[in-house]
Amino acid sequence: MSNTIELLAKDLNGQGGVFCPSAKAHMALWDSHPKVYLDVAKTGEAKCPYCGTVYKLKAGEHVGGHH
């Protein structure tokens, strides 16, 4: 079962993404999968290919020059 993590713009790194596994998804690095980078800013959400967790920008949040 996958879960969805709502993110604020400030949760993203300078490139507009996040890494999974993530503490925000209540995952510990040691008990999950290899670390992967997910570009959230491009479409507003990204799904981890390993665990299926979806990282989604919260409604109304804007990233840098992306409006």
Task: Explain what the structure shows.
- By secondary structure, the protein is mainly beta.
- It has one domain (about 5-55).
- The protein is about 0% helix and about 30% strand.
- It has no helices and five strands.
- The chain has strands spanning about 5, 15-20, 35-40, 45, 55.
- It is globular and about 30 Å long.
- It starts with a strand and ends in a 10-residue tail after the last strand.
Q: How is this fold's topology laid out?
A:
Elements: E1 4-7, E2 17-20, E3 36-39, E4 45-47, E5 54-57
Parallel strand pairs: 1-5
Antiparallel strand pairs: 2-3, 4-5
Search tags:
single chain; 67 residues; mainly beta; 3-stranded mixed β-sheet; two-stranded antiparallel sheet; 5 strands; 0% helix; globular
Distance between the termini: 31 Å
Backbone CA Rg: 11 Å
Give the mean pLDDT: 87
Strand count: 5
Low-confidence stretches: none
**Structural class by sheet pairing and helices:** mainly beta
For the largest beta-sheet, the strand count, sense and barrel status come to: 3 strands, mixed
The helix fraction, in percent, is under 10%
Specify the number of helices.
Answer: 0
What's this, in brief?
The chain is 0% helix and 28% strand. The chain has strands at residues 4-7, 17-20, 36-39, 45-47, 54-57. A three-stranded mixed β-sheet has the order 1-5-4, with no helix packed on it.
